[in-house]
Amino acid sequence: MSAPLGRWAVRALGIVLLAWPSGCAVTGEGYVGGVYEEPGYDFGDWGAGYWVGPPRGREHRDEHHDEHRVDGGGVRRPEPARPAPPHAYRSAPATRPVPSIPTRPSPVHGRPTRGR
Amino acid sequence: MRPRAALLGAILVCAAPAAAQRFEVPPLVEPASDEHHVGKFIWADLVTPDLAAAERFYSGLLGWTFQDLRAGERGYAVALLDGLPVAGLIQRPEPPERRPAWLGFIAVRDVDEMKRAALDHGATVVFEPKTYPKRGRQAVLADPEGVAFGVLASTSGDPGDFLVDPGGFIWGSLLARDPDREAAFYQTLFGYEVFELPSEGQSHLILSSENFARASVNSLPGGAVRRGPHWLIFVRVTDAADAAARAVSLGGRVVVEPHMDRHGARVALVADPAGALLGLMEWSDVAAAEGPK
Fold first, then answer.
1. Hey, is the C-beta of B148 within 8 angstroms of any chain A C-beta?
2. Other CB atoms closer than 10 Å to residue A22's CB: what's the count?
3. Is the pLDDT of residue B270 over 60?
4. Does residue B56 sit within a domain?
5. Substitution target from A5, A13, A42, A46 for chain B, most B beta carbons within 10 A
6. Number of H helices, E strands in chain B
7. Is the distance from CB of A37 to CB of B94 less than 8 angstroms?
8. Among B91-105, B106-120, B244-258, the least confident range
9. Considering its fold, how many domains does chain B have in total?
10. Global pTM value
11. Beta carbons of B186 and B205 less than 8 angstroms apart
12. B100 — contact with chain A (CB < 8 Å)?
């Protein structure tokens, strides 16, 4: 092998070694994500009245929890809180309105849309 | 000249694909921020057997563009909405008796700690935690009912709490056999507040964090006997009926017809050409505060 060819080969080998990890290696095979699921489109009675979406903001679960009653002395007192049914989760206080999704326009997006 | 030609060939074989195949998922937020919203859905991945077909469908339906990170038999493409990354599309062969699906990722601060906590409360690991330099660390877990969900600790911060543009992911709904226990599981992991809302005899629970609704947990619809629990993720659309019709014209199908939901606008479920389910949700400020019709 001549000297010029030897230098050329060293340079080429260097390039190959630099390129190898991202080019010839198996990349992305171990990506953490992407899950197939069981087949089937059975959504039964999903229709009017079966709601999955968020409320439109500050919805109260008990519309009457702020009502006041007048006792014998004419003093208005709050209704006593009804006992909450037992749940596996900790329920948010009944006095808390249900929050909605973020609705402030994005300073980055918010550009005119194309009718999606 | 022959040795040179051989070397040049080797360079081309390895170096040329490097430019197209370099697997480096982009950061969620640019420029990076310190903003974090634990419990918020911040990313979604679709697994599909036909990446090109999926790109055509979602481009036509939602106006997404794509950045292909790998060429060849198995690919990955980043979906962009107005130039910003919103989702990943992964090409993998479809196993028997399975169907392509969308998978949502929930923001966490420490993926490994989340994994430990989840395992302590009945979860299993689908994909072990893995770090991607610009993206962060992520893992895929399955909740006690076997429903897969992703967790992601973004190194560039989480997207801000703003109304997403049409074409962006706006909502997640878990349809569960036991909403009560599932809500408790997710509350334990993510610290959600849980609110009960009436929904014609079914459970309709809202999971919130930082005073924003993040997702719902519902009973499986009545009569749904051939479908197990699963997460559904919804994209925002301006007109659900129009989007559903467009999905059909692009080779998809309508699974649940557009109809009014709690927020006073329509939702629908469509399936892409490979069968992956996607929710469509209208959200117009014009309809704000009107309530369901």
1. yes
2. 18
3. yes
4. yes
5. A46
6. 5, 16
7. no
8. B91-105
9. 1
10. 0.81
11. no
12. yes
| CB-CB contact of B207 with B233 (8 Å) | no
Separation of first and last alpha carbons in chain A: 63
Q: Which residue has the tokens 């997640």?
A: B172
Closest CA to B158 of B37, B2, B45: B37
Q: pLDDT tens digits for B116-138?
A: 999 999 999 999 999 998 999 99
Residue of B4, B47, B197 with shortest CB distance to A5: B4
CATH of the domain at B191: 3.10.180.10
Look at residue B99 and tell me if it is in a domain.
yes
- How close B232 gets to chain A, by Cα (Å)? 10
Indicate whether B15 belongs to any domain: no
A50, B199: Cβ pair inside 8 Å?
yes
How far apart are the C-alpha atoms of B68 and B279, rounded to whole Å?
24
Query: Is some CB atom of chain A closer than 8 A to the CB atom of B112?
Result: no
Which candidate from A12, A41, A91 shows the least CB-CB separation from B255? A41
A108, A23, A50, A111: which is closest to B218 by C-alpha?
A50
Give the whole-angstrom CA distance, residue B217 versus residue B205: 5
Domain containing residue B258: 41-287
Q: Determine, yes or no, domain membership for B1.
A: no
Whether B181 has its CB under 8 Å from any CB of chain A: the answer is yes
Cross-chain residue pair B99–A38, CB shorter than 8 Å: yes
pLDDT digits (tens, 9 = 90+) for B27-64: 999 999 999 999 999 999 999 999 999 999 999 999 99
